[in-house]
Amino acid sequence: MQVIYKIPELALYIERLKKQNLEIGFVPTMGALHEGHLSLIGNSKKRCPVTLTSIFVNPTQFNDPNDLKNYPRDLETDLKKLASASCDAVFVPSESDMYPEKDTRVFDFDGIDTLMEGEHRPGHFNGVAQIVSKLFDLVNPDVAFFGQKDFQQVAIIRKMVKKLNLNVQIVACPIIRETDGLAMSSRNLLLTEEHRKIAPLIHQTLMQAVAKSNGLSVPQIKSWVVETINQSGLLKVEYFEVVDDQQLIPSKTFKNGKNNIGCIAVWAGNIRLIDNISFNL
Ligand code: PAF
Prior knowledge:
alpha/beta, Rossmann fold, Pantoate--beta-alanine Ligase, Chain: A,domain 2, 2 domains, three-stranded antiparallel beta sheet, globular, binds pantoate
């Protein structure tokens, strides 16, 4: 596996692939890799002859300086995991190379960034768009793979690709879960033992909510989910919203002919976890 630290080196690598007409599958990450990331690489490898990953903890998407400071970083282990997953190359840029000057670009996502993550993490999606657009520019991928756990992020990236006329196909891959149902996340590493133990309640509650959704209204399901999780005493729901999967407009009813997705953010102590589920199973 080729480990690329510098932009000119990446440019040469990409140029070589383009000359050979090889399709590039791209998996951008912030490191602290887990099975969820490796499944993105697996999906890319199935589809593209070359898979390139990036590892970069992007400061502009963190609205909380402590979250940025505490974000898990372990490059050595990440590189071993990528090599075992037969990833072809990884780009590991420095902050000064990615942001030689302050990025002042402000993206317009037509309102899909104003609720849920966007409402609770102001500026987060603008930062995601800043880094992903830079990475797309440098890597020039044919296909890019993102996890469906970050459901709203995928919608934002699709919107950005459309608005900027970028020639890259976005593929959303299913959420990968621990055996107890907890959605895999780099932040799971930061959970205390007792929060880790209770955290699967999030997915369990979402699954029960889907089962109940035949007989209950959207507001009833929303209250039930929030109460059930908060009753644990250890978890605190920040938001639970049901939206359609296209425009991310809050759904008033489950019977609207749309694919309704229940999206949740939960505080487990100081760690913020997100998850989602489709109500149209
Ligand atoms: O999902 C992530 O890990 C990040 O938001 C991404 C897409 C790598 C951009 O920094």
